[in-house]
Amino acid sequence: MTQTPLRRYQQRIVDEIGQRNAIVVLPTGSGKTLIATAKISKKRSDSFDFDSSEQNLIMLFVVPTRDLVRQQSSYLEREVPKLRIVSFVSDESKSSLKELLSTTTLNCFDILVTTPAALLATISNLNSSLSWDDISMLVLDECHHTTKHHPYRKMISHWQSQRNRCQLIGLTASCSYKITEKSQREDIERLCGMLHTNLILTANSEEMINDGYHASEAKVDYATSTRDISLQFDFQYASVKLDKKSTLRNSFFRAIKEGIGSEFTRKLVEIVRSLEDSIQLSDSSFRSPIDKKGKGGKLKAWGKSCEKRAKQVKSPTLARQYAYLRHWYEALRLVIIAFPSPPVPHPPPTDEIAFLYLAMMVQEAENPFDSLRTKIERCFDVWQDTFLGVPGRLQRLTDVLDEQYRLFGTSIRIVIFVQHQIAAHVLKFFLQHEPIVMSWAKPVCIHSTNTSGLSMSATDVKLAISAFRTNQANILVATSVAEEGMDIPACNVVVRFDPIQTPVSMIQSRGRARQENSAFVVMEEMKQKPLDMLLEAETLQKQVLKDVSQRSPQLPLQSALDVMPTVNRVPLRASTPRLPTQRRPAPSAVARGNSLARLNKLVQKQGLEISTKCVQEPDTKEWIYQLSVGADVGLSVHRTKKQAKLLAADDLLRKLGKR
Question: Name one GO cellular component term (predicted).
Answer without folding.
Answer: cytoplasm
